[in-house]
Amino acid sequence: MTIRLTDTDFGELSNDVQHNDCERKVELSTWFGQSSSDWTFLRHNLELAIHESEYSEAVIVEGEHDDLPFLTSKFFLSGGMRTTTPNVPGVSDDYEEVAGYNYLFYLPDIQEFEHFTANQRKQCISIYWYPDLLSSFQSSFEELPVLLQQLIENPTKQRFHQPLGAITPAMRLVLKQILQCPFRETLRQMYLEAKVLELLVLQIAQWGENNLLLQRSLFFRPDEIERLHHAKAILNQKLQNPPSLLNLARQIGLNDFKLKRGFREVFGTTVCGYVQSLRLEQAKQLLRGTNLAIAEIAYQVGYESTSHFGYLFKRQFGVTPRDYRQHKGL
Q1: 92 and 233 both lie in a single domain
Q2: Which GO terms of the molecular function aspect are on file (predicted)?
Q3: Exposed (0-12), middle (13-18) or buried (19+): which is 117, by Cβ within 10 Å?
Q4: How are strands ordered across the β-sheet holding 122-129?
Q5: End of a domain among 214, 232, 259?
Q6: End of a domain among 196, 214, 232?
Q7: Which of 303, 315, 314, 306 lies closest to 275 in space, CA to CA?
Q8: CB-based contacts of 242: which residues, under 8 Å, 6+ apart?
Q9: Which of 8, 85, 97, 241 is most deeply packed, by most CB within 10 A?
Q10: Structural domain boundaries, residue 180
Q11: Can you tell me whether residue 266 is helix, strand or coil?
């Protein structure tokens, strides 16, 4: 069963609690699940939101972005979300955001559909900010990514949705500090503003570093390399039941030829090789950290045949699963 809601429906089901001029909480509790959004309003038109949700049924929320020219920096800590954006030039009409990765996008004045998977806890931290935040610091923007430079000069430039890669250890530390803010009132505002700015610096710097790496590729455009990183993120999220090559290529907006060639050139492996490597690494963790039967571990990481799993494991690591477990003392 799939629950379909509009933004208006969602608002009517939610309980909006205004704590003070700087904080707001929106909660939903209904028969198909719960969600909450904790908002903090900071200086420089910065808004910080901690979103959490878990639904017992699949949920699709239809929403519309207004025409305000703000950017969204999103950091997925758990769960994920599929979004469809029909007929938006320059943006994939069907993309996924997954746990452990961060995104930056500029999508004013569009219609979108957010797809939530049943029985999956989602937690993400989002920062909403305007391009003029950057111009308040200096007048030279040559070191910024080109899309941000264009937005500063003209906020009506084309929309984009930019996957920026895995959340780095430095980002993860700041995210943890935001979630565990030890202060109240004025000190809380000061602390969170500092952490939000630090997180934006880390994200924009990551984008810049990515662009330097992208320049090494002669065959692929920068946006195509980003799509390949997005493909990796999808495979990480759906390891036990990964999409087919054609379906994965469709999700990231490349053809299957570029997907296969891109994995070889950018990551040094094939799509299947990458999935196999991830599965076997997960199997190592289960062998080391649990007492599950080897057949059950094989099944959990996506192999129905225990003998085939054992063959691949030994080829990869030089020992059988049983010998590896015994060596680790389990």
Answers
A1: no
A2: DNA-binding transcription factor activity; sequence-specific DNA binding
A3: middle
A4: 14-20, 23-30, 33-41, 47-55, 122-129, 71-78, 101-106, 160-166
A5: 214
A6: 214
A7: 303
A8: 234, 235, 248, 275, 302
A9: 97
A10: 2-214
A11: helix
For the chain (length 330 residues), average pLDDT per consecutive 10? 91 84 92 95 96 94 90 92 86 84 92 91 95 83 84 82 86 95 95 97 87 59 82 85 90 89 77 87 85 89 89 85 73
Nearest to 224 by CA among 257, 185, 182, 188: 257
Matching residue, tokens 């909006």: 16
Residues 129 and 45: their CA atoms lie apart, in Å, by 6
The position carrying tokens 């069963």 is: 1
> What HEC string does 42-61 produce?
CCCCCEEEEEEEEECCEEEE
**Residue 163 is encoded by which pair of tokens?**
């996957």
What CATH number is attached to the domain comprising 235?
1.10.10.60
State pTM to two decimals: 0.69
Answer whether 208's CB lies under 8 Å from 61's CB. Answer: no
Rounded to 5 degrees, what are φ and ψ at 294?
Answer: -60, -35
